[in-house]
Amino acid sequence: MVIVMAPGATQDDIESVVAVVASAGGEAFVSRGVSRTIIGLIGDVERFAALNLRGLAGVADVVRVSTPYKLVSRDNHPERSTVTVRGVPIGPDTVTLIAGPCAVETPAQTLEAAKMAKAAGATLLRGGAFKPRTSPYAFQGLGEKGLRILADVREQTGLPIVTEVVDAHDVALVASYADMLQVGTRNAQNFALLQAVGAAGKPVMLKRGMTATIEEWLMAAEYIAQRGNLDIVLCERGIRTYETATRNTLDISAVPVVQRLSHLPVIIDPSHSGGRRDLVLPLTRAAIAVGADGVIIDVHPHPEQALCDGPQALVNGDLDELAMIMQEFPKLMSRTLAQGA
Amino acid sequence: MVIVMAPGATQDDIESVVAVVASAGGEAFVSRGVSRTIIGLIGDVERFAALNLRGLAGVADVVRVSTPYKLVSRDNHPERSTVTVRGVPIGPDTVTLIAGPCAVETPAQTLEAAKMAKAAGATLLRGGAFKPRTSPYAFQGLGEKGLRILADVREQTGLPIVTEVVDAHDVALVASYADMLQVGTRNAQNFALLQAVGAAGKPVMLKRGMTATIEEWLMAAEYIAQRGNLDIVLCERGIRTYETATRNTLDISAVPVVQRLSHLPVIIDPSHSGGRRDLVLPLTRAAIAVGADGVIIDVHPHPEQALCDGPQALVNGDLDELAMIMQEFPKLMSRTLAQGA
Amino acid sequence: MVIVMAPGATQDDIESVVAVVASAGGEAFVSRGVSRTIIGLIGDVERFAALNLRGLAGVADVVRVSTPYKLVSRDNHPERSTVTVRGVPIGPDTVTLIAGPCAVETPAQTLEAAKMAKAAGATLLRGGAFKPRTSPYAFQGLGEKGLRILADVREQTGLPIVTEVVDAHDVALVASYADMLQVGTRNAQNFALLQAVGAAGKPVMLKRGMTATIEEWLMAAEYIAQRGNLDIVLCERGIRTYETATRNTLDISAVPVVQRLSHLPVIIDPSHSGGRRDLVLPLTRAAIAVGADGVIIDVHPHPEQALCDGPQALVNGDLDELAMIMQEFPKLMSRTLAQGA
Amino acid sequence: MVIVMAPGATQDDIESVVAVVASAGGEAFVSRGVSRTIIGLIGDVERFAALNLRGLAGVADVVRVSTPYKLVSRDNHPERSTVTVRGVPIGPDTVTLIAGPCAVETPAQTLEAAKMAKAAGATLLRGGAFKPRTSPYAFQGLGEKGLRILADVREQTGLPIVTEVVDAHDVALVASYADMLQVGTRNAQNFALLQAVGAAGKPVMLKRGMTATIEEWLMAAEYIAQRGNLDIVLCERGIRTYETATRNTLDISAVPVVQRLSHLPVIIDPSHSGGRRDLVLPLTRAAIAVGADGVIIDVHPHPEQALCDGPQALVNGDLDELAMIMQEFPKLMSRTLAQGA
């Protein structure tokens, strides 16, 4: 940590800072410049953070020089991790395709979507039973009934299930059906939920908050990791910007940035980021090429009847091209398409 | 709702749209232009929304022309509302000062802050017992112990309490102590929490999500209102932008914009928006002058020891000027400073 | 300047940095921590900036601790400045009202708007003869003919003229008519134009780029100041954010932030920031209350016929309230309404 | 164009709108709903835009349903265009690599960088002689001397030159040396410059404004096209968002979005978007995979000595991997690497 003193800071101000740092067991190194003095701190960053150094007289700025996350940081875990979901790997050697309907609506629709997913190369099935919706008047999902449909479709297709949980107190219920718990973009700072999924004993897919910085996203992962669960897959799904041509702006650079900061796998959701069917395949290609460890894609047998996000779902006519992408692009990255157990 | 057809849409495409609308009990008015056709829809908007019209062949865009919120809309409730918190009004005739410490730390600190608040003209006491923090390593609040401190200070000062709740399952506990429940910026789309506070029988202060549009904010209020609670005060607290000189960017225009769209009172938080003590008084003056129904301000007897957000808390030396602002500025707006019961 | 070394930086890396700094005539202070080393630099910042220190092996980050602007900085000029435009002051003791039509359209419209402006308390007349427009098909202004109309209206009303210049090579022409040159938001990084207005010998109003940081805005002012012109008034006019309810988001906090960083006067444009007539008066009140040194407002006798930005212009029916605001609000700030020469 | 009337609009209001539209030679189709009336307009959109319809009584909103650009629109030019720069194609059948130093510094550095570019597969040389810089104290480029260096290096290597022009009045000079004129991100709304390059008779590379919407970007291209020049290549180079881990956020979705709206080629700048060397190769792969028609990349023989943007330049050690990407990735897109004339 570095303290930057204001131009008018006095010798007393500087000595006070040094004393406060010493009282927290730290050492302070003072460098005097022509117009400013800077003070480097060595010691326990957490204790320094609690000191409220910015509040001291003469302090202009406090610059943190170490990252605030630990368990998910690559500093302490240089090898990139592989998370395994009922035998299906997500990690640096593979590209994993997760696909399925945005929302579970009926058994027939879910089964049909699962077959579409499998035909394209998917080895994990996505599908929402609990849907967080901006409007209280919109379809909120089938709840436990939806979870049972997913379990039946898993039985029929062999595809493990990834599904969202939106409330800390539903975690046990959802975990009793799901193979991987998804935390959605609107819950990226719902700390009670993060802690609950951290304790649930299942792998977690953590979507980036649509307005979260990369650091906030990793801090959210740290909340999960703190409860003893390091089976976390990060999912970039677009951030909110001023551009209105797409629903959100896919921050594709986040993949290599995060892979450098954290050992956790990172995948991309090309469906929700753009919100447009015509962008899904180009963004899927880009996702693999940038080095993402997988993609999660909406498919729907009849999107014009979908109860949620129909405009972004791939349809049967798109599947051949998706399957081709999943066959050809991983090779160029020296990866293989992830297979089931 | 208006459907804009693509330039190449066929007569069949248009007839399909008309048929789909009719099947939902609506009427479709077709206007053919030189390059495009537009179709106006009359009928039940919720049913139209479920049709997934964007998914139909030949449809380029679907434009919604009515607002998605109802209970909180001013369309259906032209008079602006006053919310009363244990006798203290927040509404169009008054300016209400809510003040207190960001976090409850000790009985002494809380009592001292409450006295500071009262001296400046506050009639409601803010103070956090449950603190949502970006880092799992940061101070998370005293929990129920903090609520008891707040209740004791209410006893000693007569100031009703506004305090945050961060998890749906704490609502009953917090409501048993608090006079007003606060939903914070990170929970602006925590729908389970919004529904729980809607059912708790206490007035609610709903902070704007730091990246919520005004429409999303009003939709969040609608979640609360739907559970039978219209005692909602909206609080603008800054939005996330690219500017880094302030923690967030106070969207002061949101006050008149929201007052035109909704009947609910709107207040401003000048402490959290800027994150800097030197901005609090200027932004407080601006808040009253723009027409806000109140302000909520952090004060702390010893901010250099604060466990949370010390850099933005007003100190004793600022109180005279704050008191002066609260005396003089409401008059210019033909309002009075809100008094206790 | 502070250099933060990467966790894995070697002793050689550190010594290289020290040597490079020494070669530029600077001194380097090395502080070794448990996980990282930081190096404080004392010397000529410009020379350090040219060293490309981030490119050196083992360097993780370079943190600048002094501001990059000098002439416009308050560090070197603690007293706030007053800029005088043909006898009309803009500065810390007054609130100056600048008003007029967005675009000069006809002599009659301009004269009528100028009379409206004067009736409301304006002592400077705004009006655009050169209009930068997003669409090449939109009205681009009357050019020199518009400047002549402004000069005639100045003759008839006594109001000095503020008008925009959009191309470096029009500066001499515009300066031959105008009393103050305006640089618009789209030209905030048109450095050739900034240098030309810096050399023109007339006061300049510099609008903030709609996506400029405060630092970039002050750097743009520095370009003007470098050419010998310190008669610069900064104008906050809203920044681009994700919110769509207003055309831009007025960053009202920028006023006190800039007044702390720079000695230059700062005014607010409540018309262009919101783009809505119903926001102009509330934002004008807020602007004065936050401490702005003036406001610049669109008025139009017949906004429904305006060729540019009619929806935001105040009309005759708004003038009494504007005049009242200009009479009452400056008093509360211990200021007076700026008078003509 | 569609006019949405306010809920309280009267029959008179509606008739006024119809009359105003008729006076502009248009036809108005009125659709009455339960709570609102909408009016569809058929006729000359430019004339409607000049009517200022939002200013009429009872009008709540005016929705434009056709695009404001024409010459660059794909509606009127369904085939995607190929722009040829001294024999080098940029278009739908190829992937073109443009590479070189950010700034021309010396003949030796420029030649060395050009050889690096060529070795990696580049057939066009980039290099800046006029540099727009945020700080007036930063290196501003060598000017004409830099252009002469570029011309010499073209002679020696056979690579045609792409270089930036920053002022309308330098266009003739720069065009006398350059094979392609670049308009930079800070000049994306410098309309005088856009018109000047439109008239210069050379192909133009138009970078997206770092905060321009896609529509504004295409409107800027329309300014160039209007002067008779359709040899325009669009370049996405990252947009400004709240994320600070990268200099800007590469909006990779903009490539397929723009290719659908416009017939112009679109390339990506992976160097300036991220501002980090470690992101350049991953983003280059993603650019080709998403369907970009080319990439423009900074290379520098000694980036630690670069006068501009050294931290993002590729070095000799990166070239083999870049060459491999340029060989392998275009094939997967059924394209070839663009060759020289």
Summarize the structure.
The first copy, chain A, has two domains: 62 residues, Alpha-Beta Plaits (2-Layer Sandwich), CATH 3.30.70; 255 residues, Aldolase class I (TIM Barrel, Alpha-Beta Barrel), CATH 3.20.20. Chain A is built from eleven helices and 15 strands. In chain A, strands 7, 8, 9, 10, 11, 12, 13, 14 and 15 form a nine-stranded parallel β-sheet that branches. The first copy, chain A, has a four-stranded antiparallel β-sheet with strand order 2-3-1-4, covered by helices on one side. The first copy, chain A, has a two-stranded antiparallel ribbon with strand order 5-6.
Produce the secondary structure layout.
Four copies of one chain form a homotetramer.
Chain A: E1 2-5, H1 11-23, E2 27-32, E3 37-42, H2 45-50, E4 59-63, E5 83-85, E6 88-90, E7 94-100, H3 107-119, E8 124-126, H4 144-157, E9 161-164, H5 171-177, E10 180-183, H6 191-198, E11 204-207, H7 214-226, E12 232-236, H8 254-261, E13 266-268, H9 270-274, H10 277-290, E14 294-298, H11 319-332, E15 336-337
Parallel strand pairs in A: 7-8, 7-14, 7-15, 8-9, 9-10, 10-11, 11-12, 12-13
Antiparallel strand pairs in A: 1-3, 1-4, 2-3, 5-6
Helix pairs in contact in A: 3-4, 6-7, 10-11
Domain DAHP synthase ferredoxin-like (chains A, B, C, D): 1-66
Pfam family, one (chains A, B, C, D): DAHP_synth_1
Keywords (chains A, B, C, D): Transferase
